[in-house]
Amino acid sequence: MPLSRRDLLLSLGASHLSSPRRYHLSISREAIESDPAVLELARDAGVGTIWLASFLYGYWYSPPEEVRKMRERIVRLGLSAAVINVPLGHPGDSLGAMSGNVPLSPPDRWKLAVGLDGHKSSGCSLHFPAVEENCEALAKLAATGVRRVFLDDDFRFARSPGMIGGCFCEEHLKEFFRRFPSDRKSLEDTVAARRDGPLLRAWNAFTCDQLTAAFRRMQAASPIVLGPMVMYLGAEKAGLRLDDYRDVPFRVGELMFSDDSFAAVKGKTDELFSALFHRRFVAPELAYSETTAFPADKLSARNMAAKLAVSTIADVRNTMFMSGLTCFPRGHWETLAPAMRAQAGLHRRIAGHRLRGPFQHFWGEASRHIGDDQPYSLFLAAGVPFEVTATPGELAFLSGADAASGAKGISRRSTPETLAALFDLKKSLRPKLRDLPWIEDDLPAVCAWYPTAHLALIWNLSEERRTFSLAYRGERQRVNAGPLELVAVGLS
């Protein structure tokens, strides 16, 4: 029988009163064997759970007996052990195996996905016997004592963010047209043009139904607590009806996995934007971050530590360090350990409190069904408090898809997504900002306000130390923040 919400939280060790932030490490058996001390390094830094790669799209990367032995070894070190499976098959080499000998596509008995253009590809394809073999794998893992499994984020039908997913093979099209009378050309034209309407919504619902049904079957296959790892801004067009996963562990989608992608201010705000969007659908205790480096050595220790701020601001209680099947450099732990302690302390102060502010974070139905996953996120760096909403108001920042969808009763203005334009907007709003904290300087920083905690978190998005002027109710205080540092400011 499904666990109650209370029992589920207890099984996950969730207690936001005593320890709001928990740290996890996804790692392969191969990586542990090549550096046996990595488990102690992770434990001493503050990691509490090790997640082992096991069943990968039709192959046993770590068979059940090896999982059992490694799990016993992990438990002897005072850590918890869980498993990550890759259920359908990552598009391309998204795992980064140390040895390079891990198959990149499912076995021949699994059918390939057929794209809109007729091109066949591995990964993101749901045909017999994929679900059946995943169910069998979960039952075997449960017999070893495993009680928690994440489905890695190939559990989707879009090969990459921004795509409208689904398999356009004859089998799936026949079933879709049986349910929703139409024709192939109309569907292909609708998807290619991203034309919102009944046909496209029916197609997205059809793909969501498939993925949800697969998840439910896997849930029923064993007593394991199962959760999806959701891709960056993953939603209905990727086959992910987010409402279907509210009561299970849920990894929020992020994307900036290297220094090159994370370095830009907008790289950081895009990352925060996706985490905030997904938090609309999952309780903080069940939310996990995607604190990922990929390839494993392409995200510096400093930037990996900076990523921790995303989870703190969004009240994501679980940080999941990931880097594929190859672990990130062991020297990272020297930087991560103090940063993990600092973020846990900050998180304790805001856990359970809601973000408030005049700027509105909104990602609507159109973005979720036809959007290109290019959010207007830079407003998060303007130094003005914000809140997350499912209904856009006066100061909501819309994507192109949401703006074009014609939400009724909302006036619009065009503001370029540049810091200069947003700083000008901030100046024009000055009279409206008096009774809330905001940063007067034209410097990129997140100002996250939690009024019931009497606290603001300021995230310096610059690579240099900054001093900010924080205005609040007619008074000002100076806030010093190191490069990429998140600092707390008490407000009376």
Features:
8-stranded mixed beta sheet, Immunoglobulin-like, 492 residues, 3-stranded parallel beta sheet, 33% helix, 2 domains, alpha/beta
Commentary on this structure:
With 492 residues, this protein is an alpha/beta fold. It has 2 domains: 5-350, TIM Barrel; 359-490, Golgi alpha-mannosidase II (Immunoglobulin-like). Helix content is 33%, strand content 18%. The protein has 15 helices and 21 strands. The strands form 6 sheets. Strands 1, 2, 3, 4, 7, 8, 11 and 12 form an 8-stranded mixed beta sheet that branches. Strands 14-13-15 form a 3-stranded parallel beta sheet. Strands 16-19-20 form a 3-stranded antiparallel beta sheet, with no helix packed on it. β19 (466-472) and β20 (475-481) form a beta hairpin. α3 packs parallel to α12 and α5 runs parallel beside α8. The longest helix is centred in the middle third of the chain and has 23 residues, at 198-220. It starts with a helix and ends with a strand. Residues 13-17 have low confidence and may be disordered.
Quick overview of this protein structure:
By secondary structure, this protein is α/β, with parallel strands linked by helices.
Which second-level CATH architecture of the largest domain applies? Alpha-Beta Barrel
Shape: globular
How many beta-strand elements?
21
What number of domains?
A: 2
At the fold tier of CATH, the topology name of the largest domain is TIM Barrel
State mean pLDDT (0 to 100 scale): 94
Q: Roughly how much helix do the residues carry, as a percent range?
A: 25-40%
Q: Which percent range describes the beta-strand content? A: 15-25%
H/I helix tally? 15
Ends distance: 48 Å
Q: How would you classify the helix and strand content by structural class?
A: alpha/beta
Major beta-sheet overview:
8 strands, mixed
* The CATH homologous superfamily of the largest domain: Glycosidases
Output the radius of gyration. 23 Å
CATH top level label of the largest domain: Alpha Beta
**Low-pLDDT regions:** 13-17
